[in-house]
Amino acid sequence: MGDRPVLPSGAPLSVSEAATQVLTEQVRVLRRYGRRVHRGTDAEDVHQMRVATRRLRAVLRMLRGRLVVDSRVRRELRRLAGHLGVVRDADVILALLGTHVPQVAGVEATRLLALVGSLGRRRAKARRRLVGALDRPRYARLTRRLASYAQAPAVTGDPDVLAERVLAEAIERLAGEVEREPAMVDAKPSPESLHALRIAFKRLRYVLDFHAAIGGPAYDVEREMARTMQDVLGEVHDHDLLLSWMEAGTGTFAGPWPVLDARLASERTTLYRRFLRLRRRWRERTRAAPNVAPLEEPRFVHLEARPVALRLVSGGKQVASLMIS
Length: 325
Fold this sequence. Notes:
This protein has about 325 residues and is mainly α. Helices cover about 65% and strands about 5% of the residues.
């Protein structure tokens, strides 16, 4: 499952208090997996370190306008995420290809083994670049700056504004962005629009995680749906990417792949059908409801403290009311 932001429950937290706790935890995770990546080759360590950089960037992006953050920190986080992304992408493709090695035979099997070997060497080269980046002073400076900043984040505006309120606003905005993605309504969304929808769900999921972590009323159903949708769309994207490389047929992917191509296409179809079921389930939560004031964009709305009733409202239409205890 990986590391998730976990904060102690208690009195409501201000933006600065919540930022301190979330950032401190994610810097700890970043450093821990950075050490593991440096001394080992486990793909999961790379993944968890990459997730930590994404969560850090998500916090800073979400609190933009509430926190004053050194632009160098944002740039260095983006740079580090780039190094991690190259290795992680190679790991994902290698894992996907590896599941099909026993399924092919003859010349295609020989070519597939050669392809896996070639991609493995590319992955090793990318990992060496990543380790080199972790050895440089700029990585140590980044983690020090993040840790120092987490202890006293610079807040703009009202220093006592509650983090729960700010996160709820972000959830409303990001839920609206999900609803407006073309892949939520198109009969046959393109691979590009499916990938954009995955990013939208990922951003929503992170903020839902942060909201739950600071002790706000939980969006348990929405969090699980966003996580599942993100995972399924991620697998669809991996298949689309690999199929596009095989179709292009350049470099190490040159030549026909009759068995592998058919199996990947079949798996992609299964994943896509699962996406359609999840999309339908999500959209069923936006059925019409009377006496709801129209809004400019879809949004999550708190109605009560725990147990909490949740509605997702969109232009006078409501996602089903849900009681969470």
